[in-house]
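anyone else get weird line breaks when pasting these?? whatever heres mine. first is seq + tokens for prot A
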Amino acid sequence: MKKWQSLTWIISLPLFLFACGGNNSGNGTVTKNLGTFQPAQNCDEIKSYVQQYADRSKQNPDQVIGIEPVRSAPTSPVPTDGGGTDGAEAPQEGSNDGGSSVTQSDIAYPDRARGLLYTFDQSQNLRIFKVSPSSQVELLTTRTLDFFPAELISVDASSKNYLVVFGNIGFGNIFPEPVPVLEDAIVAGPTLEEPKSVIVILDVTQPSQPIEVKRETSSGSFLEARGLNDNGSVVWVTQRYLPIYLDQVEDSWIIPEKTTTTPGGSSTTTVASCEDTVLYQNNSIDSTYAPYALTSTHISLVELAAPNLPITTQVLFSPAWRTLIAANSNHLFLAQ
């Protein structure tokens, strides 16, 4: 029950953060209509919501508002807020330690309580070092990742130690890019593969022998993650762009699937049920407002005290992107 209470907070708090539309009262004061989130009743309601904006983009092609997608993979991982070096100093590149040095370009995550250091290097390797005592630094293990790592969170739960590693596969966009060539015409550009987000849960109770407990891969790009240290949970945000300017928006784009892999095998299900989806509503938005794409934001929660439970996800649809800025056990704050 606690899991669903947390997710209820997730969709209720953003109501205070959205500002779409507004009017000037004439005295210099601008008022904003924050809008609301309404839970979808079924899949057909979500499809109708998407179609509404798709119709706008076709009826008002000269007013389509663009969203700039990520187009190329980084040459090395880039830390996000809330993760990264956390003040840890890494040994200089080229130090005489038998090839186990942590270079300046690596991302380092210290686990001071256990005297460990977790790093990503430029070859997509996760490395675990024993760094206490500092005079006896030792590389315990190297694990090559099959995705671009972006974030790592260390969590202690149920007398075990876990690493939750986040990243992306691919950095393109599966949908043709609209290229304005005339005032009221849009043509399609190149088609690339849609990126996928990855989460991997590793049991590192024995840091020299990490055990993969769970992996999930789904459409979209990983944005940010936060660990809720008081209850051993992790919350994260991924995002997709739905190309509503196309002639037809496929159901599979609107209701995406995810693949879950555990030691017991793999399964494919939808990212979230249609009843776990909320739709942003704001009647003050101009009827000619035509976004380039709708945003499908996925907010997921895993409880490391019970890692075998399914990862729970809620989906937010709206014509704007989001980022996670703060989280605790009861509230999640998003910014638009």
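and prot B, same format (seq, then tokens)
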Amino acid sequence: MQLDERLAGNQTLAIVLALCLGVALALGFAALVAFTSPIIVIAAMVALGASAIILSNIEYGLYTLIGIAALLPFASV
């Protein structure tokens, strides 16, 4: 029996797994904030979210590519 079949049939297992994942993410976030700057961690989370959005729709990727190509010459000055 695969994991998704077991989760679909057992809500308690799904809730426990979601809670464990949430605690693990919270502890990882807290450790990153403790070892680095909170601004860097927040920027990394925004970048991960933006990359997920860009990868989900090719149109957003095209807009990002055009924006980077337009702003790149100004960054080198």
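btw re prot B: The radius of gyration is 19 Å. The chain is about 90% helix and 0% strand.
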